## 1
Amino acid sequence: MTEQTQPERPPIPSVIHEGLPTQLPDIDPEETLEWLGSFDALVEGRGRDRARYVMLRLLERARESNVGVPALRSTDYINTIPPEREPWFPGDEDIERRIRAFIRWNAAVMVSSANRKGIEVGGHIATYQSSASLYEVGFNHFFRGKDHPGGGDQIYFQGHASPGIYARAFLEGRLDEEQLYRFRQEVQHGQGAGLSSYPHPRLMSDFWEFPTVSMGLTGINSIYQARFNRYLHNRGVKDTSQQRVWAFLGDGEMAEPESLGAIRVAAREELDNLTWVVNCNLQQLDGPVTGNGKIMQELEANFRGAGWNVIKVVWGREWDDLLARDVNGVLVNKMNTTPDGDFQTFSVEDGAYTREHFFGDDERLRKMVEHMTDRQIELLPRGGHDYRKVYAAFDAATKHVGQPTVILAKTIKGWTIDALEGRNATHQMKKLTPEDIKKFRDRLRLPISDRDLERSYEETGAPPFFHPGADSPEIKYMMERRSQLGGSIPRRVERAEPLKLPSDAAYKDIKQGGGKNKVATTMAVVRLLKEWMRDPEIGKRIVPIAPDEYRTFGMDAMFPSAKVYNPGGQQYESVDRKLLLSYKESAQGQMLHEGISEAGALASATAAGSAYSTHGEHMIPFYIFYSMFGFQRTGDSIWAMADQLSRGFLIGATAGRTTLTGEGLQHADGHSPLLAATNPAVVHYDPAFAYEIAHIMKSGLERMYGTGGPHGNGENVIFYLTVYNEPVHQPAEPEGVDVEGILKGLHRVSAAEGDGPKVRLLGSGVGFPWVEKAAEMLREEWGVAADTWSVTSWNELARDAIAAEDWNLLNPAEPKRTAYVTDKLGDGNAPVVAVSDYMTAVPMQIARWVPADYRVLGTDGFGFADTRPAARRYFRVDAESVVVQALQALADAGEIEVDKVVEARTKYRIDDPTAVQGVQQEGGTPDRSQAPVGWSSRTGAKPSTPVPPPTVGRVSCLTGAEIAGAPEASIRRHCALV
């Protein structure tokens, strides 16, 4: 063969794409050309389909041989597990089919009856009908109950599927027929006599464990629950090795950011104790999820790319024979290229339509189904409704090691209900007509006569529920299966023993104040946390949580001892390893460092705060965060945390609208107390003093982890403290301090001195120094005497007042109750001026119950970056503004001349921020080049307290860090860096 007639060789690629190694040298170009030539010949001689199949088999063999090639991001639109690899099914499929029929019926009747005339409270019929097989495979073969020797699984049931879960509980005898008739009627028949609309533990605390109807939160919360299970195991708190977390989600729900936002965490930490089941019925609320695309393929690519094990359950067993006939891949190609919108249409059309529009455009496809009737084609099922296919997927998921698993199961929304199946409006359909009910009954083959239906409609306005009897084979079977698996589910229990709490000695240091040093309240809280962590009883149960901000809050002192939790340990040398406070990771670490994810941190707090019920172990979450990134950013998660009856401490640090200087609008929290007030489970405090913090935190421990509460085992509340990064004078606790006032929300710090006009000044948190200074200025410059009061909680004062009015409404013949704030401030006529670093609506919560003229100063509007004096002058909340407001109140009352108000306003220039441009602030942001340790990785915010001088043997040069017995040279080197 001459050179001119030789076949052209394919070019040698310089870069291999799609995730394979790039720019690698070819050590044997001739061999490479031979392989490429062979592949070209395969394509030319056997076609692309055959070449594709061979390539897939080669990739499969490469993985089997541990050759490092990446996985494909998506596979063909067929079942992941082929028929020959399906395991033997251990149950009685016929009897389990009948059980499913009973549950389907009762679930649909429950929702339909809830919408009978005169009730009409809504509900969702279609979701459970599409997922019944998915749940029943789990109930009968996989889900472990609380009494299982391994501890039981945690199962997140899809919110809209709750009717099916209630229907099963009815067959098990856990719920009665009256309760089913009272679905979504929770109070009119008496507390506990009805059923909540969705999984709400707070409303049904012996039944549901996890609230799931806040779309998207199921995903992230289940991931962090599975991770927390490993955390408990690795730290030796509890053996969770046999417990699995199951989460059921919808394909439409996967569009929520929280659904997919944390999936890499599950893969990174190899959470093979986690299984997601995504019900892919191709529909969201108003139409198809991705009508022009393929949602299962999209999700597969997302999960495979993130490192999950993906199992697709696309087709039922009736498709197996057709796929076996597909020798040239034409059927698989059709499956791959048909969009979801068409599949949804096929689900509502007859077999003739599907024969024409799915199989009809290719002669090979038409021949493949020519032996089938139109009815047989119409009944070709989706995999999510095939019990054996679903069982195979669940079995494979529980045996998979090293990765979390997601099962993508294709279903039809409203399956088995002719009036609902696959229709766009199925989500909004709440009621079935008598004709719909009869067709549904016939399809399920239930022994309910037309006369029985008519009688039920006459008596109740709704169809009857069906129960085959406790002695029926079906009920005996399902009860035996649940007994083998550890009891009925869902079921919530509280088995944790009350904790032995720290003695008063733990609070001694913090009550002594800061002496000559000024201390931020953030550091006072952290100092107390360190004392708790030393406690032999509760120390190991503290779960510190932060979203990449431990150094910002001065908690890096805990790194060397408590360590950051990482299941893989620390496999690298830390860049700051030579420092005393170097970053330390450990599989037994106590500190949960969540990276830049407030949502993930809150999910961890929720898991830790409910461990007393999910695991029978009290754990105490201590989640500290930028206050602006708490209730504003993750408010829905905090609401779900409250629904889950979680307990713990949320610390909104760097709080206030004017206190976090330099950060600007999106960091300036002027409203989180208002958002917290909307959550009935949240107890908010805004302390000014370290000794207040001592009493508040102690109260939190006692209320949540002591012997109080409805079960003698603590209250289901969450303590939220807003604390600040501004160093302020911290006095020692005074003799006879009003502890009751601190906890109820208001106590007097100083009494008015002198005989002149009197005012009462109220301040909270970092605002108290303003009223303290204002009192001094009023006395010395204007001859006005002022009481000063610390308001530790505007919210609790308002709640107390509302509760008093409600009691009076219900008990008109009894002596009237008065609000605590009314009693505390007394009958005096002296005006009251209130100020905080929050918008005026926060102090205004108590306005109606203040027994005097009440004036409020607040930080309404957006925040901005400047010094604290400038910001406070701009918002008119500083001491000078308090003085002018107090004088104006006195002038309005006729106590002083208005000329004094004009004089004060002119003197202080309270409307002019430029008047304070020369005023220096304490604890401002230092030069970053001089202080690399202690900075926030996100914002560069300063350490929360000034750096005091080091001392030999004990160092506190970095925000309260203590290292006993440290060498003098190490101390000096360390402190020079900070």
## 2
Amino acid sequence: MKLDPTKMKDWEIAAEAEKNMKTVYQLAEELGLEKEELLPYGHYVAKIDYRKVLERLKDKPNGKYIDVTAITPTPLGEGKSTTSIGLVEGLGKRGQKVIGALRQPSGGPTMNIKGSAAGGGLAQIIPLDKFSLGLTGDINAIMNAHNLAMVALTARMQHEFNYDDETLAKRGLKRLNIDPKRVEMGWIIDFCAQALRHIVIGLGGKKDGYPMESKFWIAVASEVMAILAVAKDLKDFRERIGKIVVAFDKFGNPVTTEDLEVAGAMCAWMVDAINPNMIQTIEGQPVLIHAGPFANIAIGQSSIIADYVGLKLADYNVTESGFAADIGYEKFWNIKCRLSGLTPDCVVVVATIRALKCHGGAPIPLPGRPIPKEYLEENLEWVEKGCENLLHCVNIVKKSGVTPVVCINAFYTDTKDEIALVKRICEEHGIRAAVSEHWLKGGEGALELADAVMDACNEPSNFRFLYELDEPVKDRIEKIAKEVYGADGVIYLPDAEAKIKLIEADEELRRMPICMVKTHLSLSDNPALKGVPKGWQLRVRDVLIYRGSGFIVPVAGDISLMPGTGSDPAYRRIDVDVETGKVKGLF
């Protein structure tokens, strides 16, 4: 059957493509993996033993490292994952040995409005149902590890409330004096469950826990997930797990998972999860799926370990950064590259005509509703105005000293004049740009993009960080606000001021990189402001401390660590064919 994305839904395309999937054994042979390095989960999904691969190939030079980011997206997204997959397919069509390294999707967006981030059209990864519904269980392991820390905390608080010091000592415990008003962690679940954002636990009698306010976050906002993304090996992972600050005591001292004697057990849940997962594109190129932290509320990157493996196994390793250049690429640049020691050879900035129109004045499209008719009509004025946002995002990449390539992620509804206008504006600013029709044509449609990327990878780069870790915390936040977002300055609310004083007084904390929490829908902290907002100041209302993952986390604007489920979620259309067991309706 001919695969036609203009007539077929994504899950229908995936189902057809899966009939001709390569087995993981074939993928492993093509990558040059040895038998004991492949850890199969059935015939079409596997984990890779990262330690054995990296030890065997430690003297092999790395391949080219490509990051995919984007302009500020609409609420519908701009096909960044689709472009990453399309680029992998395009490089494969050019005969290159290529591998992708992408994040694992959360069950929250998969069952809600955004979908599973498996790509779309003829640029997808398969098997779609396995990818979208838990894969090899890494997120379940993260939930178990994270929630075990909360079990340890709440049990300890109950016992300290019920017993005196002598009784605690008989059980081998010393009083930690945990302050119930300063519990930092909450529970996690891998769904968008707004009803669990603010809860009360411990109701009942003295054997039912300690009564206090608590909360749930979405699983991909867990610090355990962030640690999976940034850990370089199991030893590094174990050390970071033990540094997670669960709460503070009544004297203001941090209480860690190591203090609760739960860090080792948390790590035990993660021993298998630390190995990257391998699946494939619908054209048969391998893709590593590992870690999945949210981007506007976490680091938004796939794992460092997956990149280490991909760069040894292939000539080109394509990864992506969550959301736009102001959030995803900034964190890739100043956090992930700093921790991994890797630097990109090229950065792709994805733009759609739809998003450019949105930044140029068109009505904002909303998930679950028909796209406004204005997006189906040519409007060169809106496109040209919207290119201000594109140029701003390209300049963010240029600040890092890496060569950018603009990918015009073309749809069959775009007009030739709209696409030509964007290419002309890029050329006028000396920016390499390529049109890609991977959604419609797969790898064949991404050849122009693949050629531009290979060309850019041959240019010398002058990679440099935006800030140094010995700079004061406020100076670093303000550099991000002014030089990346385009703000005039930063306003700190009282809670943020107090946290920054605490951080500056701690030699270890003050030298951690900055991981901003901010809306992805605007360069500013106000999602309604499109284009390149002027005359505004970033409002930092709080600063979280992720001691385990090693981040200082300023929170700007009204961002929740537990998203909500909309009125028309995807789960209304997902079902199972009871004759075959195949899942349908995923996207």
